[in-house]
Amino acid sequence: MSDAIGTMPNPANAIEPPLLEVEDLQTSFIVGEGQDVRAVDGVSFVVKAGETLAIVGESGSGKSVTSLSIMRLLPKKIGRISRGRVRLRGEDLVTLSEQEMRAVRGNDIGMIFQEPMTSLNPVHTIGTQIAEVVIQHEKLGKKQAHQRAIEMLELVGIPEPVRRANQYPHEMSGGMRQRAMIAMALSCEPSVLIADEPTTALDVTIQAQILDLMRNLQAKMGMAIVFITHDLGVVAEMADRVVVMYAGQVVETGTVAEIFTKPLMPYTSGLMQSIPRMGQSDVKSRLQTIPGYVPLLTKLPGGCRFRTRCAFAEERCAKAEPPLEVLDSGRSVRCVRWRELDLKTKATA
Amino acid sequence: MTETSFPSRPAPNDALLDVRHLKKYFPIRGGVLSRVVTNVKAVDDVSFSIRRGEVVGLVGESGSGKTTVGRTILRLGEPTSGSIDFDGADIGKLSKSAMRRYRKRMQIVFQDPYASLNPREKIRTVLGHALAVHNIGTSADREDRIVAMLEQVGLSGDYLDRFPHEFSGGQRQRIGIARALAVEPDFIVADEPVSALDVSIQAQVVNLLEDLKDKFSLTMLFIAHDLAVVEHICDRVIVMYLGRIMEIAPTRTLYRNPNHPYTKALLSAVPSPDITARKDRIILKGDIPSPINPPSGCVFRTRCPIAIADCAKIVPVPVEVSPGHFSACIRTAPQPAYGQIAAQEMP
Description:
The structure holds 2 protein chains of 2 kinds. By secondary structure, chain A is α/β, with parallel strands linked by helices.
């Protein structure tokens, strides 16, 4: 099995299909009369068993829509998968019926969101909600399911799990609710956990707890994690491999070491340079910036979508949209100039 | 009590803002008579000062009281007790009309550029209001001023007749900054001004704030939870936890050599984008306690890795551990008259 992400599967080499494979995914939203925007436009990547893949991007990059597409949780009527495949162990999820998909959610793929308060049901106790998930997917009685809920709460480090199981979401702190969300998502031992900005709403000391918990649970349970975030610090801490998205497309992929030490796409290096780093207070340098704004999906520039903000853009960047080029090492980059550029990661004077 | 227990008190005419023993309690009422049952001690005996031209960072997690400090010193909420000296006058006790004069000199930039601009008003009106309220310029030359201000924050004067929804988050934050600076203030409270912005936009706004600070010789209280941004922009940093100041130090000292166990944990919790420098993390247990019922003694002791029995009894006062570096911890910053002084009794 090659290490490549973004490549087509090669049946000759494939001993078994990858755990999760997103191939040429395109998700469209209706924005006005007869007008569609492609929030996700031809995204491909592979998630291997037990690994953590980070999808990083700014707002409007399509990272969250990608995860909602995998889960088939797009808002009905306005959002739809217009092209592509999402395969779980070779089985295409895009063509499943809603009922079949329901068996996949929670059971094979669990998901946690940024704001646990809006994704937990306020009128049911935490224990009931977790038990409900368990009953949906496994042949367990109410009592056994409740017992499983308590075990899960204990597993995610919630003190006094028996008492906490009888509490409502509003009785818990933000960090505690995120733990409960994780307990629920992992209650059927899914092989993939999709975590969409799971710590963005949390304080930094609580974030450290949750990241630590996710790492420990992954070591214990062996699930793959798709970690969606805009925080490069979190990516560096958590990810094995990274997918960088911009304006609905994958613009670069690689291992965390490759991306952080030798980015190939100007957008990636621009992001790296624009984040202030701790421990630099004696070097009072200005932050490097990426000029301009993320383009609206309805007003994308022709050619490379990043070119209007790119310091290295040339005439040819406007001519055609650069393809996502897959390198021998397995990483990939969407930039016609990557071979000639020597990009930096830090804003050193 | 000696002066040394006052955090970083500069010479009087050097300080633009001097806050002493500031308390802000929010009453919680209950029962049929709506009597005050208890208080949320959002800010509990906070003292600090800001020199002219200085940028002071105020960091802390949710519930630390950092936003309440910012709002109270601007008199956007009445202080429960304590003094707020602004340029030599105690504005904490001024009447609303007397306060007006000072409002022009003290402005705020809010976190959420979506919520802080009236969606029905064009940019011309948003900025025009700020000038009209403070009787700045004649209505004729206000437009010139507004255009000049927009250009200062990197926006085109052509945007005058646009509505807020026509702008991106970063552009809106620039408008919020333009509004604050339009009245030519001396002092700005920037309350999480870049937290809602995307990474690539955040750097633009941080640079803009630095430029404007130099250009208009502003003094700034920069409230944020992002410790890397604070390190980048601030001269000194105040660390708060549950309504109290844990540590104050010059930026470099605080990041290189933190004294307080909370500061150490906070700094170590920040995920680092530097993959070569993985560090040992101090992971604090549990949650931030409720400010309705804070722990006795040191408010941090319930999560502190080095707490001892005395921590429950003694309210630590800020002690100067190196020049300009104050820490309120009985373990790491030995108290002047150990065990006898409660912070509330300070003069």
